[in-house]
Write a structure and sequence with these properties.
By secondary structure, the protein is α+β, with helices and mostly antiparallel strands. It is 40% helix and 14% strand. It has a four-stranded antiparallel beta sheet. Strand 2 and strand 3 form a beta hairpin. It is elongated, with a radius of gyration of 18 Å.
Length: 179
């Protein structure tokens, strides 16, 4: 079991590439429990999270914030304990000194489904407002697919080869999230 004296400082951990040389997230993180820090291209800290499946969480973050996910630092723990996970996250946040990464707006960008509706054009707004329920659903799916295509293009430019599958049901609500 990890005790306070065993907690790694964020600075003491090595940077790992978000996508390996094959363009994928490290498969060995599948079902691993721990805390992770995500850094942008310049190694600026952008997010600290914890998960019972680091791989699945990193995949979600890559889709939600593809331009921010370049480097990682990870602390894997053997026994799941929310207390320990939160303690590590809090320590890393304090060590970083920038508490804004924990504000609600930043957290939502990393943890909530993508709201494609914010990308709706004025013309689409007008069409939406003058549509019946089925027409609204079709328009929201269209907007969600457009945003999805942009995300996929960004990921392709990054060399991503990790399989990405979006939940088709959420597109009806104008939301994007992985299945």
């Amino acid at each position: 079991m990890i005790t306070n004296t065993q907690l790694s400082s964020l600075k003491s951990l090595d940077y790992l590439p978000y996508l390996d040389e094959n363009g994928i997230i490290a498969e060995k993180l599948h079902k691993e429990i721990g805390v992770y820090a995500i850094f942008d291209e310049t190694k600026q800290l952008k997010f600290i999270g914890y998960s019972r499946d680091i791989y699945a969480s990193l995949k979600q973050h890559l889709v939600r914030q593809p331009k921010q996910c370049y480097w990682l630092k990870i602390e894997i723990i053997e026994r799941p304990s929310r207390t320990i996970l939160e303690e590590i996250k809090d320590n890393w946040t304090q060590e970083n000194g920038d508490l804004s990464i924990n504000d609600e707006v930043n957290q939502n960008l990393w943890t909530q489904p993508i709201d494609a509706k914010i990308h709706i054009t004025e013309e689409e707004k007008e069409t939406y407002n003058n549509s019946d329920e089925l027409g609204k659903i079709k328009l929201l799916k269209k907007v969600a697919r457009r945003v999805q295509a942009d995300i996929e293009e960004t990921l392709n430019q990054r060399g991503n080869k990790t399989e990405i599958r979006f939940n088709p049901k959420l597109k009806e609500q104008g939301l994007l999230d992985l299945k």
